[in-house]
Amino acid sequence: MIREIYCKLNSISGNPLSRKRISDRIYSKSGEKFVLPLEEATLVKDILKEQQQCRSKAEKKLPSWIKNRCLFASVPLEQCTSETIAKAKAGLFAGETMLSLTGGLGVDDAAFSKSFNRITSLDSDPGLNAIARFNNHCMGIENVERLDTTAELYLSESQAHWDCIYADPDRRAAGNRATTNVSAYAPDIVSIFQTFEKMASRWIVKLSPMTDLRWFETQMGIPVRFYIFCTKGEIKELLAVWDDETKSENCIVNCHDDRFEIFWPKEPIDVQTTDTDIFCELSAAAIKAGFRDSIMQQSGLQPASSHGFYLTGKTTIPAALGRCFLLKHRIEGSLGEIAQQLGTLGIGQANVSARDFVLPAEETRKKLKLRDGGACYLFFTGKDKIKTCFVTEKPA
């Protein structure tokens, strides 16, 4: 609805000035007055309301866009890449030309515009495209061409060859929150690749973090390199990449505000030896990438539980690969026996985590009548009669 209003504004003004006046109105300081033409004023109320709702999310997710007085649309903003992750992606790939099959709000296009000389970006939504063109103008981006068309139609009519084709398909196209069925994405990237494979030297596809990596590679029928983007060990984005030289492998890209670092499974990691017992919970990124065996081999940490994602030993590993704590106690028994021993230790407040356990973490905390927070961290595991609780603290 909101993007339809943008289209109406375009037809009224015949130029981007109406969007400029809206931007001025949205970003005006308190007390400033901007008088809009009557026709625009009747349409702009809904836009102003949406922009106010979007700005709080955009301030954290897209700070440069706020700084440059850009406009937003609520659903594309929710689904788009964060600026931090987009910059990391652009730092990994470069070339002369890129075709972006799913322009969306344009965050990835904006980042890639600094590493590719020319980008053609496609989206079937004219209103969203109008917003994207205005934002590119605000940010001084001149090498991105935004077209009102679909990926399938454009590729079927084009004779061009691209250094890279990029796609961030809609994972909610079928009305679901998210799906791991790539064929249900819009556009169907598997079908598109099989039809237009030779039109690019490299293909990059953004996937749901829930996607089974080996399953996707089987669907594609080719070797795929997976980049697992994370912040503080939490998976934020997953990229599948393939070209003529790609081999099957996974890597972790740990993103910070101003830099990123890459972890490859066979490359040495920074392992610190200690004199104290260490408990380590592997990060979601390390588990997704299948790094457990490599981490254990390099660090000497050993599985502390049946699922193998809790490790113990005398070393610490980088935070992107796992959270490391000082191991104070290991308690085993029934949940009641564990509760009794926690009481003996004087533990009435703790941060609780649970993996492969009979109860979720929050229910476990309530069952044990523990207050949330504090300096103590408890990790629970085990679904049999004998359960395990690791009592830990963060290092100084």
Which terms summarize this structure?
396 residues, alpha/beta, Rossmann fold, VC0802-like, nine-stranded mixed beta sheet, 35% helix, globular
Secondary structure topology:
Blueprint: H1 2-13, H2 17-26, H3 38-61, H4 63-67, H5 74-79, H6 83-90, E1 95-100, H7 107-112, E2 116-123, H8 126-138, E3 144-148, H9 151-157, E4 162-167, H10 189-196, E5 200-207, H11 213-220, E6 225-231, E7 234-243, E8 249-255, E9 260-263, E10 272-282, H12 284-289, H13 292-299, E11 302-303, E12 310-316, E13 322-333, H14 335-344, E14 349-357, H15 361-367, E15 371-382, E16 387-393
Parallel strand pairs: 1-2, 1-4, 2-3, 4-5, 6-8, 14-15
Antiparallel strand pairs: 5-7, 6-7, 8-9, 10-12, 10-13, 11-12, 13-16, 15-16
Name of the CATH homologous superfamily of the largest domain: Vaccinia Virus protein VP39
Distance separating the two termini: 53 Å
Q: Give me the count of strands.
A: 16
Rounded mean pLDDT score: 88
Largest sheet: 9 strands, mixed
| Domains (count) | 3
**Overall geometry:** globular
